[in-house]
Fold:
Amino acid sequence: MKTKKSLSLVNLLLIHSKRAVMGCAVTMLCALSAGHVQAQFCFSPERPQLGQVVSFTYTPQTTPLASDSTLEGRYVRYGAPNVIQLSQPATVKLVRHGNDFVGELFIPRKDVAGMMLLFRNSNQPKRTDLNNGQLYIIPVCDASGRIVPHATGGQASVFTRSHFLYESGARPDPNWVVTLYEHELAQNPDLHPFYWSDLLAAQVKQKKPGYGPKVKADIESYLTSRPTPTTAELTTAAQLYESLGDFPKANALRERQKLVEPTGSLAQKDRSMAIRTEPNWERKKAAYQAFATEFPTSSYLPALTVMMTDGYFKNNDISGLITFVENQPASHTDVLMLNTIAFQMADERRSLPEAEKLINRAIDVLKSQPKPRTGASNWEAEKLTRQRQLLNTYARVREQQGDYAGAYTAYQTFIDPNDIDNTEPRLIERYFQCALQTNHVAEARPVAEAAVQIGKGTSGLKRALRDWYAKQPGSTPAKADAYLTQLEADLRADQRDELQQLLINEPAPAFTLTDLQGRTISSSAFKGKVIVLDFWATWCGPCIASFPAMQQAQTRFQNDPNVKFLFVNTREGGPVQRVHNFMSKHPYPFVVPLDGQQKVANAYKVQGIPTKVVIGPDGRVRYRTIGYSGNPESTVNELSLVVEMLKEGK
Structure:
């Protein structure tokens, strides 16, 4: 059957889509101005109004979903640009009837100018029918049957101001967006203030020849037509000029905006930036206080408050910091920053009572802190994570003040014996130390042992466990060593298996060098021994950072005559005196041969420093590693295992 339509409605349909058809009868046989066709998308009533339920039928035979049987619809309601919050995607259920899929949508009683739909496979959401990127449209009509204002411009707003199309992996067609805006303004010229900037922004993206001068002329024309442009209009115009690369005109409009609104956002931004860049701490404090008094609700104030919190700490104004933090509302308080500051103070044993005040303030704020507007999609889980961080710092503060009982109680509240693998190793060490001080070893021992067994045991934790075990009735230092060895047995076996795969077998070039004391260091003197070569330079940060771990490794074998450590200075690029000065300032017990010409480094294939090379008793290179992981425990353990394996003839 034919559905009778006015000429203007047919024209609108042709603009909406080549295929989507409005207002078909229940039989779903629809007609455009030329002939009868089987409609792909039809709805009823033909001219839906606010507050009505719309029934629609989708026939996918000639679409990308022609062979799919499990379909669903995704839709948004839309209206004027200032109600874009309406356009939240939702799913509509479809019921299959033969080749057709039927669904229903309700039109709210206000603000809505239409609905936009796409269809997709409910099991494979990336399989979609987007109607050639134009989506399927149900425009709203008024009581006289005329399409309401924003019915086409609102579609463009969905494309440009929402993520509805992006959710399906598609992008808006700039040409179609411009067409929609232009059609809206042709039908409703009085809506020009709603769409002028969006239309110009779309034309910038469209990039038709000559678009730049045309867009600039249209900006000027619009601003001239407004006797007193609003700050929002001036801001939008400035952004348009920026998109065209005309920064002088953009800046001029921003200055004009400051004159129109001397206490507005731009003026606040300038004041905020001036506070941030003020180098004098006293003047910075005064400027911040003036800003907070004048603009107590400014969007720039929370970030400035966080900056000032950090400033008090960096300027070592701890008493001022406490007063400042206690006088801030929770909304301006960064609990993680307070946590970082308090933990650093605790670790350094500095101003411990003040550190306790800071962490207590952070804990109180977190209890009532609402979900942030950005990030933290699972706020409750994030809040628990933050709470554990704060309690860890609180425990550290109490521990450093000698309140081991309070610290132990705090540790108990957040250490999970079933999640040791994701627990920071030093935290476990501190927990066990507090348990020793408060006679709670029975409760803490399983956690400490589990940490050692999975490689999370620090040297301090292992030493504490060993010393505690050695003091138990019937125990001896030898039994304590065996106890610790047994705890690490499985871990070390796994590590040995992994290291076995990393061992190499290359000739070890002979070398003779002179060390810092003028002694001759020759590889031939160490025949039959395991030799550890550490290639380094004084300017190499990672080299120096690895020295404490290398000292531990050397100490572990200091009484073994069959193991020799040599710290070969190479690639120094400066006077030898620099090496002497460094070793005098850092008296590591190292033998330091000088490889000034890099001959030994090149012979041992050193591509970067630090590089550790281990030569086996058979005089062959068996292990080489470059860089430093930053983890002293793993460095010591890995190097020690390699040495032990080579001594065993592996």
In short: Residues 7-186 form a domain with the Immunoglobulin-like fold (CATH 2.60.40.10).
